[in-house]
Amino acid sequence: MRLSALLALAAIALPSSAAEAAQDPYSYAEPDKVRVRHADLDLALDFPARTIAGTVTLELDWREARADMPAVGTLSLDTRDLTIERVEALDDAGHAQALRYTLAAPDAELGSRLGIAAPARPARVRIAYRTAPTASGLQWLDRQQTADKQAPFLFSQSQSIHARSWIPLQDTPAVRFSYAARVRATQGITVLMSALRQPAQGEVQGFSQPQPIPSYLMAIAAGALAEQATSKRTAVWAEPSQVAAAAREFSDIEAMMRTTEQLYGPYRWGRYDMLVLPPSFPFGGMENPEMTFLTPTVIAGDKSLVSVVAHELAHSWSGNLVTSATWRDIWLNEGFTTYVENRIVEAVYGRTQADEEFVVAAGELRHKMQSLSENQQRLAPVPREVGADDALTDVAYVKGAWFLRFLEARFGRVVFDAYLRDYFDHYAFQSITTEQMLDYLRANLVDRHPGKVDWDQVEQWVYAPGLPESATLPAVPAFTAIDTARAAFLHGTLGAAALPGGDWNTHEWLYFLDHLPEAPTLAQVQALDAAWSLSRSSNAEIGMRWLPRAIRAGDSSAWPAARAYMLRIGRMKLTLPVYRAFASTPAGLAYAETAYAAHQAEYHPLTRQAIEKVLRKAHAQPEATP
Ligand code: BES
Ligand code: ZN
Fold this sequence. Notes:
This protein is α+β, with helices and mostly antiparallel strands. It has 19 helices and 22 strands. The strands form 5 sheets. The protein has an 8-stranded mixed beta sheet with strand order 5-4-8-2-1-11-14-13, with no helix packed on it.
């Protein structure tokens, strides 16, 4: 089918300018009327009550009144499970005047619209509020749930639309604002935010984020934390017993930063610090500015999983500097970042490792693509069909990065690197749509170097489902040898112990495991485990690929290891495949449910939701192979 025909159809539903993007379907904000420019937070952490309480003062930019707009100002904000105690307008002298407001009944996905009547269009509005103990964007841990058991712990995860569960704000990536915060916490608790730390004043710790950031980058963490420097401008934060191992694992961070700066221009955020969270952190990493949050599962002891750090660092350019204006455009964050991540890995750890990592990711993408709808296979999907987080499949990450690799190959590194650097400069501190990215691409790369790429090809990458034929992969000789060895093993012509696994690095193991059948035979699983102790691997990425296969093969001797794994690790990408494998048989489902019932309180709210969905689905369709 002609792509232009497809696009003509899609264009009706797609936002084509930043103004239209302002209509974010996942937010009640009305940024074409009014925008938050700065937020000033005064908060107190109450660990026993599991609440954050205090005020946020929003500095507002009211837009020129348009003919179709009522003259009276209304400020429409996003909230979820917040208790609103007071709303006031502040004048220049700081005098407060109470404002009327209504908190709408909650929508399950979006939360509650907070509508504030602001007839005089005040420059500042102050909201006094408190969070619910069940806030979807926060996890409160008892001290027993931490590594050192010294103090309780709190952390936020705002992406995609959970900032609204701990701050009333315009929770859309189309709006950017700077912030300052003062946070009161009891002695012995260190508070960190996605901001630069200011000197503490007694029990109050101060923060300043001078750059305009989108709301999903609002972040807070608090606990008994220690800091270890990894260079002048970088450090690792973790519970005291973890900090030395973390600093060793991430010791290449300064080299990573220099590489990225050489490629794409100066790091614009001052410091780059990393916080290692408790194991219940639901993601691998989160690019909170100045304070990347990381799962402890990346501390493998041998730096084999540090590409996660390269990824979060890369977001300092792709994502935090140039931000996707809507969740439908999220591939502008994740695809560009996955590309940059691989360039960092190549520069710091060599071409072979970079190629291996990309080929592993591409294999996963091809596999997962089979179970995605056509719309989900598009880099820029037609919005509204999916939830805010559902645009975040491997498509955004790996197909996005693959598209940039395609451009790099066609235009050559020298031209493409310079182009990308200019792109980051051009859109720095802006939130943009796919179409704005394409405008810049066309004018500054494709039209300037005619004959390299047809515009139709670009549109196919961005708007068509599946992968274009121009998607090629680098040859990885080690993987070819592994394919041969795997085939011989599966044929029964090579014993498990005779596999050359002793020579394989982690990525080579991942490649070997990824292309085993989903449910190997019991004999195959037992032979591999006997030879290579895979069930006991301490590398979480190996466990995620091995344990589900052992379960599906019917090897109940792997159950206790799988149970320990899924209770130890709250990172959704790792723990959910184990739950899914258990859920594929009635006995496994019962076993997983018992384990979950006893430990659900330890999981993050998002992980709980996701696990419960897997378990519910298994009950609904017991025959289905997930
Ligand atoms: N920004 C994402 C994490 C995220 C995405 C949180 C969507 C909530 C919604 C982060 O940069 C990321 O991509 N993390 C990956 C690691 C990466 C190496 C692929 C993860 O958590 O697995
Ligand atoms: Zn990312």
